[in-house]
Amino acid sequence: MGMFRLMYHFFRIGAMNELQYRVNFWIQLLQSGVALAVGLISLALVFSHTTDLAGWSQTELLVVMGVHIMMGGLIGAVIQPNMLRLMEDIREGTLDFALTKPEDAQIMVSVREIRLWRLVDVILGAILLGTALVLLGDAIGPLQAAGFVVATIFGALMIYSFWIMLTSVAFWVVRVDEMLNLFEGIYAAGRWPVGIYPGWLRGLLTFLVPIAFAVTVPAEALTGRLSGATLGLAALLAIGLLGLSRLVWRIGLRQYGGASA
Amino acid sequence: MLDYYWTMARTAIITQFQYRTANYFYMIGMIAEPVIYLVVWSTIATAQGGEVGGFTPGAFAAYYIVWTLVRNMNIVFTPYGWEWRIKRGELSAALLRPIHPLHQDLAYFGGWKLVVIVLWLPIAAILALIFQPTLNPTPLEIGVFAIAIWGAYLIRSMFLWLLGMITFWTTRVSALYELYFAVELLLSGRLVPMSLLPPWARDLALFMPFQWTFGFPIEALVGTLSTTELLTGLAIQVLWILIGLGLVQLVWRAGVRRYGAVGG
């Protein structure tokens, strides 16, 4: 339970810090609005030339887009800023400050930062998702809703594990800033269901960068496509990746020299 | 003047060639975007019986592979950099030189482009192996393409300079920039080839410089433009460069006056 208390405190401090800069909320809202408009226009363009994309209708793709924006907001608000700070700390040697705390170091480095305003995307994505579900008109049963929530949690855990491993690379190769670009480029692929990509790319987006599980699978849960087997695989992979990332982090940490040592 | 350009470009080539790994990472990160578009549109083309808007999957592959080079040619000094330029006093130093700072940017980024083109060749080869583009350019098309990518570079340099110079008046510019880049994305041929846009959007794009920096160079190489269209396209590029240059001069003069007033 100590972990949740720690998360809560850091969240509160981070939120209070960000709340000082209210104008940033409007800037974020405008930027998210522009991004949303571009997404909707791309979707409209695609569907002005076809009626379905690999078995998904336009409204179903709105569901995918909603989940994509929500997950993107979550990553941008909580995961990415922490990992960027970790990269910087490793490079500068200031990770000492986190390591000397009595709490578990991996938890410490994962909860220190929050970009509160990026949560605007979570809200926008949720609105889009809700609208799409109303348009679809199918009643969402409690089972589907539960499937969605569980799949989203697994997806988020996998993305987190992926980021921890990616950032741990910084223990060996100090400069990894470009990774952020690379990740954002690849994350954009989740805007579309991974089923449309050719086999090798789908494999990459499923197992190497787990975007399929973070975006497509939760969307599948809401559009009646999710099978128990997929959810089981998601659970297995989430646990596996979490364990693996812990291992990589530990090994990486041994490489860390520190600045004061 | 030519001497200045050559020295500046050479400096850029030497510097950037040293950072080739960083350059490569950057260029590889950029590949995700066109690959996504390519996959989406190829899927549609196949589902529609082999083509959509005159593009087969092979033609889309050619379009989006050439896209990667044109995108790199489109990278110029970022308007976000102006804040740093003004804040750090970089501009004060540039103003002391007897030469317009525009020349410095054009020459430096121009030299950098030469490195980028060399680094791009293996990327293009790999993408071509994976996606099998249909590409049979005539010598004229290759010639026009080789000129048009530099035309694109100049047009985009001018317009991003214009955008960047807004920083002379206000630093709350990020929302405006995002809006500009969104319109550019949609109406330049970067998101989709111009022929897939609805007619009204194509008409709208006629009054903007965007398609001459993106869609035109690509289509010069992969499309079926007639000789007249190719040559007219180059002429329109020249027109937009001149319009951009005129506007840059105008705004620059006003901006520098303003800059002096603030710096005291």
TrEMBL record, chain B:
Protein name (database record): ABC transporter permease
InterPro entries given in the database record: ABC-2_transporter-like
One Pfam family from the record: ABC2_membrane_6
Keywords attached to this entry: Membrane, Transmembrane, Transmembrane helix
Transmembrane segments: 21-41, 106-130, 142-163, 175-192, 230-252
Coiled coil segments of this chain: none
